[in-house]
Amino acid sequence: MSKKQLIMEKAVELFSKQGFEATSVQQITDYCGISKGAFYLSFKSKDELILALIDYYMQQFSTELDYTVRNETKENTLYQFFYKTFHAFSNHVEFARLLMKEQTYSLNEALLDKMRYYDQLTNETILTIIEKVYGDAINDIKFDLILAIKGLLNSYSSLLLFNKVAFDEELAAESLVEKTNILATYMSTPFITEEQGKMFQHFSVEDMSKEQLLSLMSSIADDIEDSLEKDSLVLLKEQIDHTSFNLAIIKGLIENIRANKQCKWIAYLLEKHFNLL
């Protein structure tokens, strides 16, 4: 495990116990068994660490959903979307609770900007899903359907966040597929106008420059120990500068790194760069 990854994982444990405000950089470094200097080599401040944690968890979640939307059958896409959303909440429930609890933290505006960004990305994913599943049949009500799906997700996810009860992720996903089908079939009075619906459309992850992409790939490669993944990332870096492989080989190299949790976001960015999305 890289030092940066160690700091992030240990910081989440401390933040969950004490909150953002009450946890100092000194406490984090003591808990990690590292010096303050080592901390500042990875993060400029505690605020930057918190934003990095949000990026880390949300990028993992967003890329998993994107991959699901593009690779599942039409019949199974909606179920997998709900199931993987609940599964992600379940795996990271402590951090989700922490974000909801720390509304008054001094980083609030920057934190809100991050959450708005990923909320917009989720809107785009849901729009892609319902257009894939229902086609033109939901054209008039698709923006209302996005809000309805998010409302259902928030309500059911609150059972994970605030209630100490057993939560059957598979049954919850099946239940929400059934409810979404009913809404898509019988909802006939749209509230969101076409003009208002533009906020759900034409959103994409901002393009990285070639230099930014190469820099990110270099920093990730330094932290990877698996030889196949490291070699695949090195070869992909070479293709950024000069594409000599065909797209099938590039796609295979991206698949080699996708399973590594540190590489999920870069795999998505590379697919975008090579127009494989």
TrEMBL record:
Residues 24-43 bind DNA. One of its GO terms (molecular function) is DNA binding. Residues 1-61 form the HTH tetR-type domain. InterPro entries: Homeodomain-like_sf, HTH-type_Tx_Regulator, HTH_TetR. It comes from Ornithinibacillus halotolerans. Keywords: DNA-binding, Repressor. This is TetR family transcriptional regulator. It comes from the Bacteria. SUPFAM superfamilies: Homeodomain-like.
